[in-house]
Write a structure and sequence with these properties.
Blueprint lengths: L1 H13 L31 E2 L3 H16 L3 H13 L4 E3 L8 H15 L3 E7 L22 H17 L5 E6 L3 H7 L4 H20 L5 E6 L3 H4 L2 H21 L7 E4 L17 H13 L6 E5 L36 E5 L39 H9 L10
Helix pairs in contact: 1-5, 2-3, 5-7, 6-9, 7-9, 9-10
Bound molecules: 2-acetamido-2-deoxy-beta-D-glucopyranose (5 copies).
């Protein structure tokens, strides 16, 4: 651990260089870190309520009350205070918030004697969201992104290490694997592909902690669930895991997260490409054949409304979506560790302003709610839509 600070310093110093040297902590071979991957990390734990989303949803509730909409305001209070969503690490600056999140989880554990599982999405890969435009991030390979991402991952690991009594579930880099499978013809994706595989492998190799459980990203049924994409998806996931093991032979992951930020159902549609459970059942044997014993978590945060025809391009602020089934370990199949809410419902997918730098056509599709603000910022009308269309319905807090 003593070397960590110097590694971070070294990584920062390297950040100007085009090709980065892989960095990894050396660990003693006697330390067995594989056990966390063999358990469902949610089992026996309480889902921690995100303080970030709580704040957003409390403000949304207050706005509704100010407009005299008390029914919806009270439902918003339930979403704010009772329902667990992922915390998103979407830039370097947000790392500084990790201690406050994990201290709150510790405090709840002390007060309630109930163990908390804190869910964090790491979403800062260089040339992120390379095929769409709406969620481009702060790092790029052309600008020293590889070394900067390594420093970013090592700082995240350093923060998590300070809280060994809090269980953390990490989902890594939503959309990345989908782009690696289907979008290599997009120049930004093709150019970033090898770097992105190395970067995700670096993250896996360096986030191996006794109380941290990792899920890679499997996009969703409507993207990778089709016959021609399943095999390539298993190939890419297995390749990334092998790269991680080449850095750290003890590297393990629990499985794959699907449907992050999308709208598909789980086990309510037999159609391939439309249902997450069909996708998971098709993908799991292909991964197992490559030695990757994968379990799954599935985002259902915006999956409440399933009776409309959705195309793969309908990813931006879908105007038919409602909040979906609540986070639980009670899932339709043993392959699924938990239903989760990964995308904080109400944070915008992308702006509808055609003149904005990150404008993407998908955000003005006939199926998108318009007008929409910048990706990641609060979209009050969308939050209200999710509440109104929630299935199962959200109960009022009081
Ligand atoms: C590490 O843990 C795994 C899973 O529990 C077990 O199969 C393996 O034998 C252990 N290895 C060592 C060196 O203890
Ligand atoms: C509350 O807000 C929702 C969503 O904007 C709207 O559909 C509903 O009509 C409003 N109810 C009242 C009583 O204003
Ligand atoms: C953290 O890991 C240690 C060592 O494996 C284990 O004894 C402990 O129960 C874990 N705690 C949590 C909260 O996961
Ligand atoms: C996640 O699940 C919801 C609801 O079941 C679904 O509507 C959505 O498309 C899924 N997202 C992805 C990325 O598959
Ligand atoms: C979905 O089904 C509900 C209940 O049957 C209905 O009210 C709603 O209009 C349907 N939505 C769409 C988009 O078909």
């Amino acid at each position: 651990m003593k070397n960590l600070q110097s590694l971070i310093t070294l990584a920062a110093a390297l950040s100007g260089l085009a090709s980065a040297t892989p960095l990894v902590e050396t660990r003693s071979p006697s330390k067995n870190v594989t056990s966390i991957a063999t358990v469902n990390p949610f089992s026996g734990f309480n889902f921690f309520v995100s303080p970030v989303y709580r704040q957003e949803a409390l403000e949304a509730s207050a706005k509704l009350a100010l407009h005299g909409n008390f029914t919806l305001s009270k439902k918003a209070l339930t979403v704010a205070t009772k329902i667990s969503t992922f915390l998103w690490l979407s830039d370097t600056a947000t790392i500084s918030q990790i201690p406050s999140w994990l201290k709150e989880a510790q405090k709840i554990q002390q007060l309630t004697r109930k163990k908390q599982v804190v869910q964090i999405q790491i979403y800062n890969l260089p040339d992120r969201d390379c095929s769409a435009k709406a969620s481009a991030g702060e790092l790029s390979y052309a600008d020293g992104g590889e070394a900067k991402y390594q420093a970013f991952i090592l700082s995240v690991a350093a923060q998590l290490k300070k809280f060994p009594d809090v269980r953390v579930v990490l989902a890594l880099e939503t959309d990345a694997v989908g782009n690696l499978v289907t979008n290599l013809a997009v120049p930004k994706c093709g150019d970033a592909a090898e770097g992105q595989k190395r970067s995700i492998a670096f993250a896996i190799a360096n986030l191996q902690l006794p109380n941290v459980s990792i899920y890679l990203d499997g996009a969703h049924a409507g993207w990778l669930g089709w016959p021609g994409n399943l095999g390539p998806t298993a190939d890419v996931l297995a390749e990334i895991l092998a790269l991680a093991k080449a850095i750290n032979p003890n590297a393990v992951v629990r499985g794959v997260a699907t449907n992050i930020s999308n709208y598909n159902g789980l086990g309510n549609n037999e159609q391939q490409g439309r249902d997450e459970l069909v996708y998971i059942k098709n993908l799991q044997p292909l991964l197992a054949a490559k030695g990757f014993d994968a379990h799954f978590i599935v985002d259902q945060g915006r999956s409440g409304s399933q009776n409309y025809t959705r195309e793969g391009t309908d990813w931006c602020n879908n105007k038919f979506a409602g909040f979906g089934p609540l986070p639980t370990t009670n899932t339709p199949d043993p392959l699924v560790d938990a239903i989760v809410w990964a995308k904080p419902g109400g944070e915008c997918d992308g702006t509808s302003d055609t003149t904005a730098a990150r404008f993407d056509e998908a955000c003005i599709s006939p199926n998108s709610l318009i007008p929409a603000p910048e990706a990641g910022t609060w979209f009050q009308a969308y939050f209200e839509q999710l509440l109104v269309k929630a299935n199962p319905p959200i109960a009022a807090l009081f």
